[in-house]
Design a protein that fits this description.
The chain is mostly beta strands. Helices cover about 0% and strands about 65% of the residues. It has a single domain (about 5-280), classed as Beta Barrel (Lipocalin). It has no helices and 18 strands. The strands form 3 sheets. The chain has an 11-stranded antiparallel barrel with strand order 1-3-4-6-7-10-11-13-14-17-18. Strands 12-15-16 form a 3-stranded antiparallel sheet, with no helix packed on it. The protein has a two-stranded antiparallel sheet with strand order 8-9.
Length: about 280
């Protein structure tokens, strides 16, 4: 996971209203228990397990009707456990700074279409010198990367009555960071559909159910210029979630991701689930 995984509606086509602000708090948990080689699960004799938790403070501000500025500040905890014991790194993660520019906006009866360009960078603000038991943790357990990692996405949202459709294309260029470690570049494609099953007259509550598919491709990592064989993967996820707005200014959501297919390089732990809880207030 990364900083931009937090926030609310970060990769939706719509922008925040002009001069409006939203403050959000997001909690994310990723669990890896399955040892995999290629597409097949294999025995895990050392009982390895990896858990990553993130609490992300998000601030969105509408600079204009078509331009939104976002700041995401994560606190990260990474834990690798097994029969031999456990290692854990915890601290401030890499802060993400981004803008969303809506370059297409079309309205029609009972619907609208929005297409935006998101650009940003993850900054090297995270902790990279965490120790456990007097030993410096490897890069994969450090809260931060120590590198400037730019990213960009094209995102689209279309609403038709009670239905909403979202699509996005995302790419992140990971640079060489601390300990001369370079995490592989990441590409993500996603499509989702949502249905608003509760819609009371304004300012009454509303709620939507969401279902989507996500494809993720991560290149192999490099350490001191050499490929890390047990890194990189191609994965497909089924994403489900519910959003609830008890009042116009409040945003609450929960989402849960499960893998449909995973193809990892060499032998490594693969993601079993991802959970996201988010609470936001607009003013």
């Amino acid at each position: 996971m990364s900083a931009q995984s937090g926030g609310i509606e970060t990769f939706a086509g719509e922008t925040l209203f002009a001069e409006g602000t939203r403050v959000s708090l997001t909690s994310l948990v990723e669990q890896k228990d399955t040892l995999r080689s290629g597409t097949s699960s294999v025995k895990n004799p050392r009982n390895l397990s990896y858990t990553e938790r993130r609490e992300v403070l998000g601030i969105d501000h509408g600079l204009s009707r078509n331009l939104t500025f976002t700041l995401l500040v994560p606190r990260v905890s990474r834990r690798l456990s097994g029969r031999a014991g456990a290692l854990r790194g915890e601290g401030l993660g890499d802060v993400a700074v981004m803008t969303k520019w809506r370059f297409l906006h079309h309205t029609q009866e009972r619907g609208a279409t929005h297409v935006s360009l998101v650009t940003g960078v993850e900054t090297p603000t995270g902790e990279t010198r965490e120790h456990d038991g007097g030993v410096r943790l490897p890069p994969g357990l450090q809260p931060g990367s120590g590198s400037w990692d730019p990213f960009a996405a094209v995102v689209a949202t279309a609403s038709r009555g009670l239905w909403r459709f979202d699509a996005s294309v995302f790419h992140k260029l990971n640079r060489t960071g601390d300990q001369r470690y370079d995490e592989g570049d990441l590409t993500v494609l996603e499509a989702a559909v949502a249905y608003r099953f509760l819609h009371e007259q304004y300012p009454g509550p509303s709620a939507s159910a969401r279902l989507g598919l996500q494809w993720r491709h991560q290149e192999r990592d490099h350490a001191a210029g050499r490929k890390v064989l047990a890194s990189g993967a191609e994965e497909y996820f089924l994403r489900s979630g519910i959003s609830w707005h008890p009042a116009p200014a409040w945003d609450l959501s929960i989402s849960y991701d499960v893998p449909l297919r995973q193809d990892v390089r060499a032998t490594q732990l693969s993601t079993d689930s991802r959970l996201k809880l988010a609470l936001g207030l607009r003013f």
